[in-house]
Amino acid sequence: MxxxxxxxxxxxxxxxNGTAAAKKASSDSASSSSQPSSSQSxxxxxxxxxxxxxxxxxxxxxxxxENEAAPPAEQQTKSTAMAIDSETGEDSPxxxxxxxxxxxxxxxxxxxxxxxEPKKAxxxxxxxxxxxxxxPAAEKKVTASAAASSSxxxxPAQSKGKAGPAPAVKDTxxxxxxxxxxxxxxxxxxxxxxxxxxxxAEKEEGKAHKQLAAIFLKQxxxxxxxxxxxxxxxxxxxxxxxxxxxxxxxxRLAILDILTNFFRQVIxxxxxxxxxxxxxxxxxxxxxxxxLELGLGESLIIKAIARSTGRKEADIKKDLTxxxxxxxxxxxxxxxxxxxxxxxxxxVPTVFKTLREIAGMSGNKSQDRKIGAxxxxxxxxxxxxxxxxxxxxxxxxxxxxxxxxxVVALGQAAVFSKxxxxxxxxxxxxxxxxxxxxxNTLKAVQSELPCYxxxxxxxxxxxxxxxxxxCKLTPGIPLKPMLAKPTKAIGEVLDRFEGKQFTCEYKYDxxxxxxxxxxxxxxxVFSRNSENMSVKYPDLVQQIPRCIKEGVKSxxxxxxxxxxxxxxxxxxxxxxxxxxLLPFQELSKRKRKDVKAEDIKVKVKLFGFDLLxxxxxxxxxxxxxxxxxxxAENFKPVENEFEYATHQDCSTVEEIQIFLDASVKEGCEGLxxxxxxxxxxxxxxxxxxxxxxxxxKDYIAGTGDSLDLVVMGGxxxxxxxxxxxxxxxLACYDMDTETYQSVCKIGTGFSEADLxxxxxxxxxxxxxxxxxxxxxxxxxxxxxxxxxxVWEVLTADLSLSPVYAAAKGLVDQRGISLRFPxxxxxxxxxxxxxSTTPEQIQEMYQKQAxxxxxxxxxxxxxxxxx
Length: 866
Fold this sequence. Notes:
- By secondary structure, this protein is α+β, with helices and mostly antiparallel strands.
- It has 29 helices and 24 strands.
């Protein structure tokens, strides 16, 4: 008899032992629920990561411990506002720390780890000294990270609690030649291949864990009572109780259980309110492309809390500096407020409707009307409701609930609701397969058609099995674009695509533009964040119809909008100066709204590189080679308006190098390298795929990519910069803990005009004190800002730093910082949640050439920021 797979074995176990295990899970859940749910600082969130990393770290030698305990080297004195030496501010020499596994999971996938694995991993090592209580959102992230690192990064000896030998470092490879000709990237290709295999393994393991956990939780335990009658709207109180449970637990599988169960109750009791419930869970009011946002400032929310509780605004601001969380301030303010009468309980439809009304308010006295609507809601709030209502108004629930988790829970709830009691009597292997298929279907549909207004009604009406037919890519509804992985050595490209057909194309320095053309003639241009840019680019809207060939009725085109200087002509019509591409900064000068074609000074040229939909047929599953063929057959170049992206098939280092040099000469950023044939050449929405690689000129002998960072704080300027901010504190975004982690201090790359413009943008975003979702490490800016502005930053390399908090515990107990960071441009096409993540910074650090040579760095707060 063939051996059972791990999925079959575990499924059988859960099926036979579900009841007993369910009792244990119930007990665990009750224990978790008893934890404090008040807001904790972002520093505490990060310290949970450090504790988890210590739990699973291999036993270190005495020499390593002594080296890591060595005090930082004395910082050199800077006499001028210039870039300091690359070694300034570093710690004493430290023995290289063995890198942990690349990423504990692929960001785009909801792949869960076995809940018991962290415990087993932790039990094999010496436990660290007790630490302060940590945020549940951080703990559930770190536990999965620790298990992944322990199981994948350790040698067999280490897995038994012993330190294994360090892996050998490959000296060189015939293909691993850096773009600049150096050998600094010698081991990057090997790491990338290993990372790819790890990602595949994690994806398969995660699915098994997720689905089998669902079987365990649902087969062995009766569905919890909803707590409300079927003829009543979904109580907002019940939703907030679910939020509180999610915020309190440290177990990702428990989160899925809580949310899956709640969605089941809504589906079976009030299916008409499922859509509103889902939107409140992901803290949105509509699809992204509709652009309806609350946009409420902190001062307005403070006024509403003060008016609804009878407190002074000054007292509320004082409490905010203590707690760092307006939600906690609101709930504490309500506790001390006497009530004359009991208001009508809030329900999900009422809250959602009111939030949409607030978002739509504009014009005369709109601020007063918004405050009035918020006060009305707050007055009716009880127990946990004020906390989560205020957080919804701020735009961040901060309970560690990612949208991908919501999608998985919704898929599981749909499957279980259809099966009903049959699930408990079904063969565990069959049930596991149904859950996996259902979840994967919903995830695939949501990536292709990211519109819950379409998905949820179809899910209720047709079931999950009918989604693929009814919910497909649709012109007018933008999908999240496919993204590329960075690489800095041509050898990495050749190793990745060895034996496969690939193609190179220019990477233009513009703005991603997804063009939708409907059968009724409607044309819209969307950004990478699904924002409708038709009002920003009215000239594009006029130009595009001229490049469409006869017979085209509808399409979705992936392209790049680039600033373009048209050719100069003499009186006889001869070209005296050829046209040329202009840098992205020229586009950023445009207003985002109310742009009139006659007022446009900088022209835009569109470069099409992919066709995703044509005449009623989605093309996502077709090979890139075929999609390109269809693009050429149905569109035509128009001088100064539209061209196909320049591309060329290359097969050697020399060919790629020559093509890269040509792209840079023409004003491009570098190259995109893509799989052109085979199953890996399909279009993967919302995925940063290894099947697309980007090779930019800035990567040469550098880190491999620029970073997109959030401006979290500022430093008052001195001398010529007295009336503006002289430097800034930048942060990455941790999507699992919903916190911002400090990365570096930057003061380089700004002209006087830049600094004045940044001051005018950031001054209205100033807030009183550090927020609870900011982890700044020991950095101490003069002022803090709301996390709204994203900058693209280039760095010489990355180093470990005791000052900054980014990626703490992922590589070392210190954070990772940038050395000699330089401002490149504002990324107004990206939101704060789209900024670089700690995991990406970890990966960049581990891949960079200096890390492979053993340089672990130190870096102080001012390391190279000038």
